[in-house]
Specification:
By secondary structure, the chain is α/β, with parallel strands linked by helices. It has nine helices and eight strands. The chain has a five-stranded parallel beta sheet with strand order 2-6-1-7-8. A three-stranded antiparallel beta sheet has the order 3-4-5, with no helix packed on it. It is globular. The structure holds cytidine-5'-diphosphate.
Amino acid sequence: MMNPIPVIAIDGPTASGKGTVAQRVAQELGFACLDSGALYRVVGLLALEQGVGLDDGPALAAVADAITTAEDPAMRLRFADGRILLGTRDITEAIRREEVGRAASRIATAGELRAALLALQRAQRRPPGLVADGRDMGTVVFPDACLKVFLIADVRVRAERRYKQLIEKGYPGTLESLLRDLEERDARDRTRDRAPLVAADGAKILDSTAMTIDAVVAQVLGWYRAG
Ligand code: CDP
């Protein structure tokens, strides 16, 4: 049976602006928003802290199970008022660190982990609708999304945008190292066996290189309202 709750899937490479666009579109429509990358980042953070091997699929899946179905309240993952909490610990900032993003990209190749996160992602689909951003929202998690957007931008522009965000937070790196890092992450996301980063069938490809965020948001809303 068709699921009547609309989903807008926004996928694309690192630092393409998906997160900001997804939040703004969700706000406009009064929809919920799923930042699926945050889930991979949370597991990445815990794997680093607990010394779990970044290529140990079953152990990573166990970490994901522990935070999503935790009996121990100190381990339970919650999203509240824009904050991400593990029990009472606020990890909103910690998961945005570059080393955590790198770990997230590495663990995301594990099929066991991806499977363990599937139900949690699908459970976010609630009336009146959901905007979901990530790599495989339109291909794997919500293949029946009513609108699929594949958001791209020139890699140098993405690196500059990310760099600006990071220096505001006191990040010490250089633009060149960030650019290399982005390219490496894109390559890994695109070439992995499980849920590689590709535009879904029927996805609308939007190149935001020369667009403002406002223009990107307006385009996505325009497509949704026209559909
Ligand atoms: O901030 P950035 O755009 O680099 O990444 P993110 O959306 O926060 O996701 C972090 C990492 O998780 C990505 O590098 C992907 O490898 C992985 N990911 C994924 O495999 N599938 C998703 N649906 C979302 C993220």
